[in-house]
Amino acid sequence: MSELRLQTRNLTRAFPGGAGVHGVDLDVTAGQIHALVGLNGAGKTTLMRLLLGMLRPDSGAVRLGGCALGEAGAATWARVGHLVGHPLAYPELDAESNLTVAARMRGVPRPRIPAMVARALAELDLEQYARVRTRVLSSGNRQRLGVAGALQHDPDLVVLDEPTNALDPAGVLLVREALLRRAHAGAGVLVSSHHLDEVARIAHRITVVNRGRTIGTLDPEGVEIERAFFALVHADDERRKGCTQPSRPR
Ligand SMILES: Nc1ncnc2c1ncn2[C@@H]1O[C@H](COP(=O)(O)OP(=O)(O)OP(=O)(O)O)[C@@H](O)[C@H]1O
């Protein structure tokens, strides 16, 4: 069986009013691209923030590699690459310097950093922006830089929230290839997206999230993936409506 890179069990964080994430079990194994899909507000970002320790759960467990989240030390985190929310970059530093800082924060030995950064700039086609301050980059190029920073150290676990949102078609292709390369090399990849077709091209497993719960999976090889997605979501909505409707008086 493939090695587990990430596991959540019964992960729960409820926000006032009931939104949030409720009882989520998720596995990401080595060599696998696992996609999360769901409507706006379904809970994908909240789930990713929980499993990266950016948000405290009400209950449930997360394991990164072999470690419980609360026990994960610097060595475990150095093997994780993530981009959730806005790409973190110092606006006054150029792209190359930002990638250098990101590599240092991951504990990459200094002599290895220049070649790693050069490879990352090439992989996301950012070489022409190596000496350009990040604050003047377009949002798409800033997103490319964020993805480059998350992937450059070849992490064992990659967590990316909508990494292709602001990208042009060339950028989408580059990110797709970069993720496939990492999975092929043995990383576990968790990625969220709204683009079902895009996800179907690269994902080995697609989990549908609806109103804070995982409600089923989609077959990446399946035809009419959109239809299958909406069928799952509507069935879940109907089931919940049935649960919350008051019983008829006899
Ligand atoms: N800090 C918070 N306090 C209260 N509610 C929150 C908080 N963060 C998220 N929510 C709510 O939790 C739900 C899930 O939000 P989340 O951002 O995880 O969804 P998403 O699936 O990533 O959506 P999108 O596809 O639009 O990015 C939403 O209803 C959101 O309004």
Automatic annotation (TrEMBL):
Superkingdom classification of source: Bacteria
Q: Name one Pfam family in it.
A: ABC_tran
Q: What keywords does the record list, in alphabetical order?
A: ATP-binding, Nucleotide-binding, Transport
Tell me what this protein is called.
ABC transporter
Q: Which family does it belong to?
A: Belongs to the ABC transporter superfamily.
Residue ranges annotated for the ABC transporter domain, each copy included: 6-236
Q: Which InterPro entries match?
A: AAA+_ATPase, ABC_transporter-like_ATP-bd, ABC_transporter-like_CS, P-loop_NTPase
- What SUPFAM superfamilies is this protein classified in? P-loop containing nucleoside triphosphate hydrolases
Q: Which SMART domains does the entry link to?
A: AAA
Among Gene3D superfamilies, the record links this protein to:
P-loop containing nucleotide triphosphate hydrolases (3.40.50.300)
Q: Name one GO molecular function term.
A: ATP hydrolysis activity
